Please model this.
Amino acid sequence: MKHHITAIGLVIVLLFLGVGDGIGQTYLFNPKHPQSAIRHELNFSLFSHFTRSPQLATIHKVKSGLAYPEPIFNRVFGIATAGYEPRLRMIEWGNSASLSLDIPLNVSLSLVDITNKTREVQYSPVPVTDAEFNSGIYFNTREGDIGIFHSEIGALLSLNLLQGSTLENTKGFGLTFSAGVNRVMAPLFMNFLYGYKRTDYKGMLAWNLAVARFGLHFRGVAFNYMIGVNPTNIYFTDVNSNTSTSVFVNNYNRFSISFRLGQ
Amino acid sequence: MNRLIYFISLLALVGGCIKTERLEPFPLPDIVQTAIRRVECFEQYNTMLVASDRGLYLRFSDGDAASFESEQYDVLDNIDWTTAQVFYFHGRERFTVIEGSRVIHGTRTSLTTRVDQTFFPFAYMDDVMAPDGTIYRIAYYEEKWDGQSFYSDFYIGIYELSSLSSSFVWDLVETQLTVSTQFISQPYSTFDDNGDLVIATNPMYRVSNIELNNIVYDSVYKSGVGFGYSSLAEPIAVGNTIHGFDHPLGSIYAVSRLYSTEFSEGHVNQQSLVQNCSYPSGSNGPSKLLHVEGDTATVYVELAGNEEVGGQQHIGYYMKLNMKTKDCQVLPLLTSEYIKEAQNITDLDIMDGKAFVGTTVGLMVYDLSNDSVSAYARLLFEGERF
Model:
């Protein structure tokens, strides 16, 4: 119900802004004149980029005859991120609305670790030996973060309204709603101080997630918020407090500012 | 325009696609990572009881388990698991352990103990569970001598495990079933396919109704060349045939013969297990009845020490014994990283093609199809549910 009210509200706002006035002739992408249908953007974010992979493994902490499972995931905290994003307008409706295919490419100075919710476990996929297992060691850990820097590539289908939707639109304000897939590769550089090897973490260093993005355009500047749309909230019991807690995995959050290059 | 509204609505709805998962704590594992005392599997219900130095671990058919630590339940420290009888009643998902005067009921959430004060005048007795979950103790309650005969008669009482929480756990139902002094022995019992209680003494009794003042039964006397028993130990009823051993498996006496007889007057056939089954000389013979399916019984043949055969180290055997055709198939259990010595095995049972092996260091799972072995706790951690 909450979502329906939100959607209806959005539509009312769009009608108020006069989107309907500019919708008329439909134009399709013409490969002979790609430059008139591509918009280039550079984007940046600072301390506002955070993502977690889907659950990669389960560790078990044992206390008083009970085994408490906890999820392990790849956690990425982007300190500073920069990206380039071409936006290819596939369909234009008059001069106020368009549908575009956006390809965001990002590189981030980020801290990457394969860990649990409280980050006190730095997970190692090296299986415990029988001797370790019998002595009460149920999973192996690392000593340092797994690595730094990460990159992303995405494919988003965007509905662009008003400013920025077409070359001709002269409104000062615009909106973009996007949905698509983002692939995260983290880390780019393994922690060489501890000699971690990429091959030891096969399947844990890249993942795809479904994302949605909302953008506000003011002339040549846009503010974007991208979010993972099908995160998983994993409930588990904390071994120390014996209370239920939860952690979101397969999630994505990034607030960025982007600047249009050229028209 | 309608399409545009629809698309925007769809985008807003997408934000609500949050999945939820739960990781529940499960009992483990340190209870099954210490010296194991007893392993009992109930294959038809996919349930298991494991008793160790640290407590009791109950695994139920849906994979859930309950742990009861001996630190909290002192009674678990005092149980002699080698003589305890273990039952499982699926209707109430309840394990029952009977040892001496103690009766312990274990469920998913509770462990209750009753200490019995019922007086049993004679030491001969056997406990058996009816298909409806009622547990009976078959024991002699009285000896009568007519003053003329050389022998006296012992009267069999059918004691029902009371559901009332009193210190007198067993309710006696007196009967006119008797065993002469010359055949006096443990009144080993079982229930047949019809739900009738079979008491494998001589005479052999089949009781079809157990009610106070209304005991309905048949009896047959046994004799013949093969007759050499006073009662059939660990009786197994298959149709009208009753099979049993010369001694209880796992007792101090080596089991050497299998008896089979119809519930009718006449002979008791016997088979020499030593000759027919040729299990290794280093063993004391069958030590535990693991599984019965139709006419085939699977028994564990314990070894006192490793036995090298054809370059392989054997730590024990399990024997498939067709009680009708008398065919035997003796299969070895091989040494592994987890179980290096035969004497490390404390108990064993099988379920679903796997042997659950209790050892001095924990519970192991031995896959009978490929001889691979792993620690039970470790398999649980890896997500396996038995």
User: Anything to note?
Assistant: The mean pLDDT of chain B is 87. Residues 2-14 of chain B form the longest helix (13 residues). The first strand of chain B starts at residue 19 and ends at 23. DSSP finds three helices and 30 strands in chain B.
